[in-house]
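Lab notebook, bench 4. We co-purified these components, and the gel suggests they stay together. Before we commit to crystallization screens, I want a quick structural picture of the whole thing.
Request: model the full complex, all chains together.
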Amino acid sequence: MESILTIKNLTKKFGYLTAVKDLSFTINKGNVYGLLGPNGSGKSTTLGVVLNVVNKTSGSFHWFNGNITTHNALKKVGAIIERPNFYPYMTGSQNLKLVCKIKGVNYNKIDEKLDVVGLLERKNSKFKTYSLGMKQRLAIASALLNDPEILILDEPTNGLDPQGIHQIREIIKQIAAKGTTILLASHLLDEVEKVCTHVVVLRKGVKLYSGRVDEMISSHGFFELKCKKHEELISFLKNNTSFGNIKTKGDLITAFLNEPLSSEDFNKLLFDKGIILTHLVQRKESLEEQFLQLTDHNK
Amino acid sequence: MLRLLDIEYYKLIHNKASRVLVLIYFILLSLISLFATIKFNIGPIKFHLAELGIFNFPYIWHFNTFVAAQLKFFLLLVIVSMVANEYSNKTIKQNLIDGLSKKEFILSKFYAVIALSLISTLFVFVVSLILGLIYSSYNELSIIFLDLEYLVAFFVKLLGFFSFGLFLGMLIKRSAFAVATMIVLFSVEFISYLVVSGYNKGTDLADTIYQFLPFKSMWNLIDEPGSRLSAVKEVAAQVGEDLSYDYAVHWYEIVIVLGWTALFVFLSYRLLKKRDL
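Here is the predicted assembly.
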């Protein structure tokens, strides 16, 4: 698989503090990556290093096949980190034109990208008159100008109101659907869960996990069940080796699986036993639950 | 190089404050010509500055570059703010992320410094040429193009001064503080020069040392032109003073200032390279 970014044993120290410790991972083309971690876990520092604004202490990284200087590689990357930074005295489209000049791309994409983020009507307003949500959307438009090989987003919904968060998410989903590689750093897990296929989990600068989201914790998910024959169902589940832990909350039964079992087969099995369900949901642990487990285990 | 210059020009031209300052600067430069119209008619004493010979070729090159150099402060504000604003807007970070290298960033600022210095020099050249052609008593081509080294000195002087501003802007990141620092540094150099020369009267010690310091070296490029005027000389001769001095532009003066320029640009680059943004 074609690699886009390779990080090897990267370490960054700020004085006594080690912000990133011996971090290695690879980003491959076509996947959507989440970079997860609580505040201060080294996400932004890692991105700062690969984006040429923070100096590494040791280790190495390279973009694409490694035959290209970092600043030239960045011309093929679209990135926004933390707050959107633009010239307040220029209009939205003037700011984008400047980005085109720096990246060396044609100006004809400006209107197209402004349309993607819904800012076309305000393109001639000065940047300083924009709301935070509009600033963030302009930043995304700017990151898309060169039709990047990879889009890097650091906390893109930070500080936005619910509508703003929703708009940004929709935009990210659209971009992901087109097959663009995305690296999304966030501490908002449902955000990552909705779009990412792969995750890298950091805590205090140390990598806890990197790989596919669904393999993050080897579990087969669980069933949420409701039924009139409550006691019978519970005793059935307890005697069935497919199930491990069983929790009841009111009339809702949560049964965790020990081995794979489809809801179809399970339903049929119960029906044959004369137990008729009124509620059947098969779920995997949410990323949030997995993430909390992972970070707790490693305390 | 053109790409970097284009980027920098684009940033400047859309900034109203910079536009106004540059405009004021060039208006003031052209106002040098107003010196020509200074006339006093107090009873029997008639005084017309243009007739004192200040617009005579080749003296006009010396006089105009000297006067024009005093206006460089306006452009300093533009230079310092164009650097410091990149920090306060954090656009320097975005520029680097967008694919400008740190070297290119410093170079684009330095190219802007060169361009502004060059345009100022050309402007002064044109204004002086026009004034000279109107008021000069000598209009032979060989005399007109004598002493053009003052324009070279003027260019180098601006280059050194603006590079200093560029470096302070990078170092301090805030326009107002960077300009204040420059004023403080100037005061320190000037006062210590007075002290050193005061303690060493009759020797050249102070000048020998201070010709290597930034402000004094820039000052030395274009010596004060007033004492060269024949009218002033006559008055001095009457009171028994000899004002003759060395007012030429020397190659080593240019080399010293170019040395400072290189150092300032290099230090700006080093600073940006080492810094985490």
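Chain B has 13 helices and two strands. Worth comparing against the SEC data before the next meeting. The longest strand of chain B covers residues 39-42.
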